[in-house]
């Protein structure tokens, strides 16, 4: 397939582009800057200049290709207002991509987060998260899945709170960034809450498998580690950076602090069996050993 990838030069996107190219696909990558265009070209993809707000560019990219993997998100968690804008921009982008694909039976792969379910690990049949700080992302993904009834082979790959590579990425990456800024490797609450995780290279493989094989209207879990205790994550970060490890207020983590405080283990048993996806790369705690002081 010739695949349109948004966010193709980010942590997950760069891995996804390499995975696609390594398995016989070609890639058209949305890029926002000259540097990103050069990175896309170096990776072997064709760059298409534009951002999530350029809806005509998104439609054109989808029209030119055999399928779409949407990964772009601003990841601006600096304030509630910035987060709201990021969610609104992504929602409009997903809607534009989906409308371009209506009636074509082409694949649209979007990403969301694994849900939190009380007292157990979430599974693929659990509903999407449609409330809270990033509930708008969940609602946009639900709308994309509903396009299955309109001739779009849409699917959602639910990413865990940490998608990592070389010790960076996701919630653990934010914890590391805040630790460097504050001099404390902190965690909210008592630290027993669990976060799922996956290596970016394993996530990229699942994105390709969903593009190639996922039935319309289905959701999948890109989960390798079902749930690492947040205190254990903070402990490794603190040891690697030479910083004390201690509880800190939820507000330390900004507008997504409430999500940081949640217990949210997740299972990918169905995904692994149905799509023949088997994570092989280092776990989060192993990967965090790559952190440099």
UniProtKB/TrEMBL annotation:
One Pfam family recorded for the sequence: Epimerase
Annotated NAD-dependent epimerase/dehydratase domain residues: 3-216
CDD domains: SDR_a7 (cd05262)
One GO cellular component term: cytoplasm
Cross-referenced InterPro entries: Epimerase_deHydtase, NAD(P)-bd_dom_sf, NAD(P)-dependent_oxidoreduct
Any GO molecular function: aldehyde dehydrogenase (NAD+) activity
SUPFAM superfamilies, per database record: NAD(P)-binding Rossmann-fold domains
Protein's name according to its UniProt entry: Nucleoside-diphosphate-sugar epimerase
Protein's organism: Kribbella italica
Lineage: Bacteria, Bacillati, Actinomycetota, Actinomycetes, Propionibacteriales
């Amino acid at each position: 397939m010739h695949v349109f990838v948004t966010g193709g030069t980010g942590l997950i996107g760069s891995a996804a582009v390499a995975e696609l190219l390594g398995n016989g696909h070609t890639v058209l990558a949305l890029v926002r800057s000259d540097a990103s265009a050069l990175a896309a070209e170096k990776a072997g993809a064709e760059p298409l200049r534009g951002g999530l707000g350029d809806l005509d560019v998104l439609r054109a990219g989808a029209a030119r290709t055999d399928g779409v993997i949407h990964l772009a998100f601003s990841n601006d968690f600096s304030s509630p207002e910035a987060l709201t804008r990021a969610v609104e921009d992504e929602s409009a982008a997903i809607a534009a991509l989906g409308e371009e694909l209506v009636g074509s039976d082409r694949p649209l792969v979007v990403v969301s987060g694994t849900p939190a379910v009380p007292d157990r690990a979430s599974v693929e049949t659990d509903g999407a998260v449609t409330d809270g700080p990033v509930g708008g992302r969940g609602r946009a993904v639900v709308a994309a899945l509903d396009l299955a009834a309109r001739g779009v082979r849409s699917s959602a790959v639910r990413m865990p709170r940490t998608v990592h590579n070389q010790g960076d990425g996701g919630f653990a990456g934010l914890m590391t960034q805040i630790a460097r800024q504050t001099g404390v490797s902190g965690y909210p609450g008592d630290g027993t809450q669990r976060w799922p995780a996956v290596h970016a290279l394993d996530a990229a493989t699942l994105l390709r498998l969903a593009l190639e094989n996922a039935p319309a209207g289905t959701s999948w879990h890109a989960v390798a580690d079902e749930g690492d205790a947040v205190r254990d994550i903070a402990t490794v970060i603190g040891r690697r950076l030479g910083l004390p490890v201690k509880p800190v207020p939820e507000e330390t983590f900004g507008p997504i602090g409430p999500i940081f405080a949640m217990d949210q283990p997740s299972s990918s048993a169905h995904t692994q069996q149905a799509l023949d996806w088997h994570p092989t790369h280092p776990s989060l705690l192993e990967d965090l050993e790559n952190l440099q002081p």
